[in-house]
Design goal:
With 252 residues, the chain is an alpha/beta fold. The protein contains seven helices and 13 strands. Strands 1-2-6-8 form a four-stranded mixed beta sheet, covered by helices on one side. Helix 5 packs across helix 6. The longest helix is centred in the first third of the chain and has 18 residues. The radius of gyration is 21 Å and the shape is globular. The chain starts with a strand and ends in a 15-residue tail after the last helix.
Length: 252
């Protein structure tokens, strides 16, 4: 969630970096054939309701608005509720949407709103903790539907659930990004990474990919890697990134 604040009030921006094809049917969200457990619009309403409670507690009078923002270039959405459309901001609309906040005035009243919100922020006790490596599911998963049922071909992995096809390189980049986020206190080594992806690719391929997208540190027997990007999406947006083979994401 990313709020925008001014003397007039707060606009809650629920950011969802979804990629692939999604659809909404009878109030339920689906990614491929799988139902999304958390409804983005419901999450937005929940955040706005918390601000209504805060407004009452602190006796403040300000407007509360909200949008669900989808910034990913590969995100697609079909929906059967046309009234829901006004709550959404798609990537092509993002520039014009942000311009709406350009002339907002943030003065003394905005500071009072900020102080009220800050007083109710609770530090996340898990922010600086790594996930348990042994409890995390190992392997590679489809970037379209999330299924781990992917089969290797010459240069791709084919998803048996939604029939999407992604390059092996795309899978490795996403796995490196996931590893970095999940195990922030654990070094990324070739051995550990091979275990993380359940040995779905050869050590030679992994060493080549780690060398391409990470910086290597340490000696030959104790070397480890650090990801050169913040996320998978940052790699794809990099102008120097060249994908030799194409991904084929289905719309089912």
């Amino acid at each position: 969630m990313l709020p925008s604040m001014s003397d007039a009030g707060i606009t809650v921006n629920e950011i969802k970096n979804y990629s692939g094809f999604y659809r909404v049917e009878k109030g339920k969200w689906f990614a491929g054939n799988f139902e999304v457990p958390d409804d983005p619009v419901v999450q937005l309403k929940r955040a706005m309701n918390k601000l209504l409670k805060l407004q009452y507690i602190h006796r403040l009078n300000f407007e509360i608005e909200g949008k669900v923002v989808f910034p990913h270039i590969d995100f697609r959405l079909n929906f059967d509720d046309r009234d829901m459309r006004e709550k959404l901001v798609m990537r092509p609309e993002l520039r014009d949407y942000l311009k709406l906040f350009k002339n907002d005035y943030a003065g003394g009243y905005a500071e009072r709103i900020v102080d009220a919100v800050s007083a109710h922020i609770i530090d996340n006790p898990f922010f600086d903790k790594s996930a348990d490596f042994d409890s995390v599911r190992k392997g590679l998963y489809c970037g379209n539907c999330g299924s781990f049922e992917v089969e290797a071909s010459a240069y791709h992995f084919d998803c048996t659930s939604c029939v999407s096809r992604e390059t092996k390189e795309s899978h490795v980049i996403r796995a490196i990004s996931d590893y970095t986020v999940l195990f922030m206190n654990e070094k990324l080594t070739r051995k550990r990474f091979l275990e993380f992806i359940d040995y779905r690719l050869s050590p030679r391929t992994i060493v080549r990919m780690l060398g391409k997208y990470c910086s290597r540190y340490g000696g030959s027997t104790a070397s480890y890697y650090e990801f050169n990007y913040e996320s998978y999406e940052d790699v794809v947006k990099d102008k120097s990134y060249i994908r030799r083979y194409k991904n084929h994401m289905t719309n089912i």
